[in-house]
Amino acid sequence: MSSLRQGRFSFLLAILVINVLALVNSRAAAGSAPAMAPNGPSIKDAYKDHFLIGMAGDIPRNYADQELGLVKDNFNVVTPENCMKPANIHPRADTWRFERSDALVKWCADNQLAVHGHTLVWHAQTNDWFFRDGDKAAVTQRLKEHIRTLVGRYKGKVRSWDVVNEAINDLGNAQAENLRNSSWLQALGPEFLTLAFKFAHEADPDAKLYYNDYGIEAGPKHASSMLLLKRLLKEGTPIHGVGIQGHWTTSHIPYAALDEAISDYASLGLKVSITELDVTIRGESGGQFGFGRRSGHPRAGGGPPLEPPKAQDLKAQADAYARLFSICIKHKTTLERVTFWGLSDRRTWRYGQYPLIFDSDNQRKPAYAAIVEAILHSTPNLALPK
């Protein structure tokens, strides 16, 4: 090679290296996650001897093959995000829409994933025909027919159900059950919870039945949940577990309270699941019903993405997830399942807040590695607060 050609080659190589380094640095500045080992242990395999690892989504329709592969490779239980909610599956008294839920249950069976049903009774996404022009007996019959039809259709195919969702008011009152003033409460009184569990148990005696709510791990709402659950158990209600939703942000996670809450529920003889887990880098904590949850659209977090996460944001999120899973590991005899609410930072009701363990390109984030690391190796620096 002539010296001129060698010089030109060296110059072009230098330019190439400079451009590659610039690209790497720009991605790091924008907060792109460091490359994670794509063939490392999957989260479901790492926790196979502890509890189930789940995701939420109305699969398989509108999911790309890559996304469905992600579900099969990383999770062992699926929660339908919207398609089993009353307004979607039973919009009118004489109309049922089973197409999406049937497809989900079949896909999960074909791919050896369990299904957790969500949700039978809720104050939201429930059309008013349930309550219209009906006395207590009529509303009770509608409730019974709805639950028996839905649970009965999937008897033996859905392992567990969120029977009642979010029945406790957000406003604190530690001295009372503090039930939300919903249409169900107005029509049937506090008995609506007992009836719902009874009807679900009659439809599938082998299914595990859950009460599911957000914010019940701490403060007056936790106290209210304990009063409610004690009352249900005293009445002989066939309830088997409590779902703590886990909609948190890295700056506000009640670690110590969560640790104590799981023990409190276990003391009642109940199992516990973390049912709708997401830990945002931006935005507020809470599971309050809002725009994103109404639509269920993968980009429905309420506007464009916020500022992309920086390296320190991703590390803070990874540390938060590791601490949360350290609590779950501690309670492995009580905990049945941890379910992420969505699949990726694109498939989430909190779009733009980067809450999950896969990024928008379906790549593992540092949080994924931290969760696996929490079970494979001790991490004393992430120990629970004293």
Protein described:
With 386 residues, the protein is of the alpha/beta class. It is built from 13 helices and nine strands. An eight-stranded parallel barrel has the order 1-2-3-4-5-6-8-9, surrounded by five helices. Helix 10 links the parallel strand 7 and strand 8 (271-280). Helix 6 (136-153) runs parallel beside helix 8 and helix 12 (311-330) runs parallel beside helix 13. The longest helix has 27 residues, at 3-29.
What layout of secondary structure does this protein have?
Elements: H1 3-29, H2 43-46, E1 52-56, H3 65-74, E2 77-79, H4 86-89, H5 99-110, E3 114-122, H6 136-153, E4 160-165, H7 183-188, H8 191-203, E5 208-213, H9 219-234, E6 241-244, E7 247-249, H10 255-267, E8 271-280, H11 291-295, H12 311-330, E9 335-340, H13 366-376
Parallel strand pairs: 1-2, 1-9, 2-3, 3-4, 4-5, 5-6, 6-8, 7-8, 8-9
